[in-house]
Each structure stands twice: as C-alpha cells, then as structure tokens.
Design brief:
The protein is of the alpha+beta class. The protein has one domain: Jelly Rolls (Sandwich). It is built from three helices and eleven strands; from the N terminus they run H-H-E-E-E-E-E-E-E-E-E-E-E-H. It has a five-stranded antiparallel beta sheet, with helices on one face. A hairpin with a 5-residue loop joins strand 10 and strand 11. Helix 1 runs antiparallel to helix 2. The longest helix is centred in the first third of the chain and has 17 residues. The radius of gyration is 18 Å and the shape is globular. The relative contact order is 0.21. It binds fe (ii) ion. The site of fe (ii) ion has 5 residues, from strand 8.
C-alpha cells in the first residue's frame, strides 16, 4: 500500500499541496522582527531578506491567490497581523495591467514571485507629479522598497502584455484599510482605500499546512 496522498482539491489544479509553511514562516519571522524594532530602516533591511527567501520559491501560493482579474489587477490579502502591524498581499497582474500613480503612506516591500513588473517612481511637486528617475524592471526573485522615507509614489505595470505576473507585498499596516492617494498628472491627490479582492485567506495554521519550523524547533 502506498503512502496516503494529501487532498489537494482545495488548491485548484495543482498536483501538489502548496508549501504554506513558507508563508507561515515568513509571517512568524516578520512578527518577531516587528516585536524587536520599530526602526523603519532595519525593518526594510531585514524584512527584505525574509521576502527574498519567500519569493525565491514558487511552490507555496495557492492558485486562488494567483488568479488574474480580466478588468484590473487583483489584490489578495494573504495574511494580516493580529495587531495590524503588517499585512501580506499577492498582487496579480493580468497582461498589460497597471496601477494608477499612487502612494502608500507606510513602509512596504515588493517581491516578484512570477513574471516581472515595471516600476516608475514619481516625485510630487506643487502642481505636478514627475518621474523621479528611470523605470525600474523588477524580475522574479527581486525585492524593492517603498515608504514616505525612501520614496512613496510610483506606478507599477506588468512588464508583459502576454502573460500574468505575480508579486508579493508586505506593508507596515493593514494596507487594504489604509487611506491613501492616487495622483493625476497635475499632482492632485484622490483619496482611496484599496480593500482586497478576496474574502477568505489561506489557512496557515492547520496540521496539514506543512512542517512547523519556528514553533516546534
Ligand atoms: Fe504601490
């Protein structure tokens, strides 16, 4: 008799169960980091290594959270810290989809899991937003930072017009509930609260969600 195979029916077409333990380790590590420091530079510095580790593997994101929306990019909440100190989100970019020029008002890290994206940073003047440097191409495995300190206004576009790209973001708040701004060409801010596309989040805490590194070791 062979070993019993895990039930993967909840994870769409994938033949193997997603390695949710990778995401769980990431959120446990991030919670521990934020318990140690409130220093943004250190959070971005250390958090960048956590996110780089997470997006170095493309075997953990359940298919439901990598599904594009034909109309606009999709923003799926993967995890929100119980104290709303941070949130982890998958952004799914359909072919050619882009954000408006926007800000975040909190620190954030962006890691590309699949495909690639183009980021144009902007500077806000009294009567305009202007490009602040060249467009940056972020490839799978690469990580970038945003914040009011290091540069907070940008526009992000799927680098591909013929395939989906997916990036994983972590922000220093429950980003879907944060009041922030999109900007028109005249630099006029338009407030928005993004919300999330999903109503259910991955269950990171079940016995079948992979080995527990942090809690049992
Ligand atoms: Fe952004």
């Amino acid at each position: 008799m062979g070993a019993r195979q895990p039930d993967t029916s909840a994870f769409g077409a994938s033949a193997l169960a997603p390695r949710l333990d990778r995401l769980r380790d990431f959120v446990v590590d991030f919670a521990a980091l934020l318990s140690q420091t409130k220093d943004e530079a250190r959070i971005l510095d250390v958090g960048r290594t956590f996110l780089a580790d997470l997006v170095a593997h493309d075997d953990w994101l359940p298919e439901a959270f990598a599904r594009p929306d034909p109309i606009r990019y999709a923003q799926h909440l993967l995890h929100c810290d119980s104290l709303e100190r941070f949130s982890v989100v998958s952004f799914v970019w359909g072919p050619g989809q882009a954000t408006p020029v926007h800000d975040h008002t909190v620190w954030g890290l962006v890691g590309v899991l699949r495909g690639a994206e183009l980021e144009q940073p902007y500077l806000r003047l009294a009567d305009a937003v202007i490009p602040a440097g060249p467009v940056r191409r972020l490839r799978a495995g690469e990580v970038a930072a945003v914040s009011p300190t290091v540069g907070d206004i940008h526009q992000v576009t799927n680098a591909y017009d013929d395939r989906v790209s997916v990036s994983i973001h972590v922000y220093g708040d429950n980003i879907g509930a944060v009041r922030r701004h999109a900007y028109d060409r005249a630099g006029r801010p338009k407030p928005f609260i993004s919300g999330y596309a999903n109503t259910l989040t991955p269950n990171l805490w079940g016995a079948d969600a992979g080995p527990r590194r942090t809690l049992n070791s």
